[in-house]
Amino acid sequence: MTIRVLLADDQALLRSAFRVLVDSEPDMEVVGEASDGLEAARMTKELRADVVLMDIRMPGTDGLAATRMISADPDLADVRVVILTTFEVDDYVVQSLRAGASGFLGKGSEPEELLNAIRIAAGGQALLSPAATTGLISRFLAQQDPADDDRDPARGERLDSLTVREREVLVQVAGGHSNDEIAERLEVSPLTVKTHVNRAMAKLGARDRAQLVVIAYESGLVRPRVE
Length: 227
Known about the structure:
5 strands, transcription, 11 helices, 52% helix
């Protein structure tokens, strides 16, 4: 199946470079280009994109707002947003994960990394390593002033719906461990871990693994630490 990719970036030169790269692959194609977030959200629905490569900083409606629009539309539940940023540690990136993005990728990444990210995101997974996601979220949340906390209290309550094993698996996911590593730690099969992860996602309303990590920190299940 061909992966349908939408490019959202206000720089035409970058869009052109991404188009050449993506269209060179036999299993993916660029179906459209957008120069701002509002246009990206509209085109995502019109063109039935599978993956949106979203620049986070664009004039007018930015990538963060566009990601929220896409994530809030039930007709686009299967769409995956990959945030492209020039900043490795950026509070906007964490906000994007909260808004429903599947992860982020630096604009300076190698071409193969970008193509691999598209394939992983299209498969419904977090496109970056859990450890990278965890490190970013941990550093960001550890710097927040409790008085300015915008966490959703309901998420803490939703943790009550998890079984003991699902909660154990969630802690391991937030710790940056893969399914195989979690399986070894908990002495179960990788398939069992995957089942627990999927059930936790369904109960907590998470689109993917990256959002599970965010929820684990925001709910207080896992405490951030400053390195």
